[in-house]
Amino acid sequence: METTFDKSSATNGRLTVKISQDDYQSEIDKKIKEYAKTASVKGFRPGHVPVGYIKKLYGKSLLVDTVINQVSKTVNEYIADNKLKVVGDPMPNEEAYQIDWDNDKEFTFEYEVGTASDFEVKLEELPAIEKYEIEPSQEQVDQAIEDLRRRHGKDAEPEKSELGDLLFGTLRQESSEFESQSGIPTDKVVEASQKLFVGLEKGAKVTFDIQSIFESDKDLGFATGKSDEDAAALTGDFEFEVDKISRVEPAELNQEFFDAALGKDKVTSKEELEEEVSSIIKDNYNRETNYLLDFDVEKNLVENIKIDLPDEFLKKWLLAVNEGKVTEEDIEKEYDAFARGVRLDLIKAEIAAQNEVKVEYNDVLEIVKEEIKNYFGGQGMSGMDEFIDQMARKQLEENKDNAFRRYYNKAFGKAVVDFAKGKVKVNDKTVKVEEFNEIAKAKYETVG
Fold first, then answer.
1. What is the CA radius of gyration of the chain?
2. What is the pTM of this model?
């Protein structure tokens, strides 16, 4: 078998494979003998079908399958052995030859091949990026402490309602004969209607347009006891009669509260409480700041390592592999994002090869476990490590929709980015949450 590769440019080439009868005949003869032993053909006893008859029945299909498989294997081996940075898949040039499977003994296959240009990755020479640490404002700390005080507060039934109380009562509309027990959380009421629910006593009645008191159908559904869709369909004036006013009296700032909220003897004063709550808020933002750091690392790689791609080849390849599911206009619209992903994958593969970055099973497992925790919002996960581990292992073993490969790719990408973070210069910068949100929004919008 003869294989040649001719480059027409830094990113395009033609791979030619010539295969002769000597390359494939022994494999066909072997398969014919196997067929003769196992084929069930009318008029012959099993295992006694003449080889010549088998050739007549299956010879052409065996020839096609054998030649195509050997050529495909040769193409893949040539690419691997010569370390070609192939993007997309080699595309057969069907116009370059006509095959006569009945008479030809030698065959020539030509493929268009798209490759990335040569490039170097020198992480230490890349521009510095910033790692953000969020400094909570005093207002945020105060609000978080107030939330903790309410969470650990005591239930009370005051005589008059205030904003933040939960009102229980009967909601009715005479014209539609609607009547339901209802709960109205006053802090969910839109600002323009909040005054209607302040200063009410048990037995008081208030009338309002049902669609004027909540921002969302979900909140209205909660208040009316209906589905979000049914709640959205309600119209007109409704009357609400107060049966009960429920309020949580905030816990006092004492040691009992400190221990209940943060753990025994974790803090012993208001000053220590504020420091601890501030630290917790910072930790809660770590996921967002780390995500942005990873984003900036990838952005740094793509924007500062020049790689030319065979753009026209890739567009043609995308059109072919999607088999009419997309148009040329669709490909043009999405191509820049696709090309960015191709470049990033090439760079990551080069970093991994240069530095022997490898991914083990446990790395993949951790990605799945983290996804499960995020799905549950990280709540109530204490003491659930064994359960989460079992669930993650089951997902990988079942491998639905090629799940293992998907999670492996995530683990590989994370491993490479983590390695790069240790090599690229990173400057620490402390910002307020509002500033961070603006910075993150601006950065993400640059990559559409």
1. 34
2. 0.69
